[in-house]
């Protein structure tokens, strides 16, 4: 009877304690690694989701502008109205790459609540690897009024514009009082590489302007 009681009162040996600690430490390291991987995966998923939302928002803004492009002469800084209805190329809008400037309609102003019309002049440019949208309050702007600049998408290293003339794509548009048949926009992005959008236009032609007036 005495021997049985003595055997039951024996504790863990040092080897057993060390083995238990080693197993616990191994499980802790594994659990911590899994937890870290879950956090990193969640962060990466969030970044990808936010980047995708930004891209979708960018394309939505551009689609709204380019699909509402209209044939209208406009003035820059109070100068005489130009016969070219669309400006594109290097240094347009002070872009570090190519830029573009045109007039669009359909800018909703319900019950004329805002001090503007439904026709507005907009443009796009690259500044510090960021695609920016430039907007003037009115198509015929004054040099005393600065346009509103809105960053649209970061990580855009280059932008190119091409227009479809009567026969082929070209990088400039000098045809007076006439809109091209289409505009092709190519974005070089750090995350998605090269993205291209093509916008079909009605190819409108304006009559010759009245002396001293704007069509």
TrEMBL record:
Q: Which SUPFAM superfamilies match?
A: Pili subunits
**Alphabetically ordered keywords of this record:** Cell inner membrane, Cell membrane, Membrane, Methylation, Transmembrane, Transmembrane helix
Q: Identify the main location.
A: membrane
How is this protein positioned relative to the membrane? Single-pass membrane protein
Does the record carry Transmembrane as a key word?
yes
Task: State one Pfam family annotation.
Answer: N_methyl
Query: Where can this protein be found?
Result: Cell inner membrane
The record's NCBIfam families line, in alphabetical order, gives: gspJ, IV_pilin_GFxxxE
Family, as annotated: Belongs to the GSP J family.
Q: What is this protein called?
A: Type II secretion system protein J
Q: Which organism is it from?
A: Enterovibrio gelatinilyticus
């Amino acid at each position: 009877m005495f021997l049985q009681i003595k055997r039951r009162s024996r504790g863990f040996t040092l080897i057993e304690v060390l083995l238990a600690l080693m197993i616990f430490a191994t499980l802790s390291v594994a659990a911590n690694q899994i937890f870290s991987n879950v956090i990193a995966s969640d962060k990466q998923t969030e970044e990808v989701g936010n980047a995708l939302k930004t891209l979708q928002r960018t394309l939505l803004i551009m689609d709204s502008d380019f699909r509402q492009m209209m044939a209208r002469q406009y003035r820059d800084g109070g100068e005489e109205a130009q016969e070219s209805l669309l400006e594109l190329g290097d240094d347009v809008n002070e872009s570090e790459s190519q830029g573009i400037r045109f007039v669009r309609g359909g800018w909703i102003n319900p019950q004329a609540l805002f001090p503007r019309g439904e026709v507005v002049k907009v443009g796009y440019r690259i500044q510090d690897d960021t695609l920016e949208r430039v907007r003037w309050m009115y198509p015929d702007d004054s040099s005393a009024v600065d346009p509103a600049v809105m960053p649209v998408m970061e990580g855009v290293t280059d932008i190119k514009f091409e227009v479809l003339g009567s026969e082929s794509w070209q990088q400039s548009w000098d045809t007076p009082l006439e809109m091209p048949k289409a505009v092709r926009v190519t974005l070089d992005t750090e995350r998605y590489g090269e993205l291209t959008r093509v916008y079909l236009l009605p190819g409108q032609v304006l009559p010759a302007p009245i002396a001293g007036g704007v069509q």
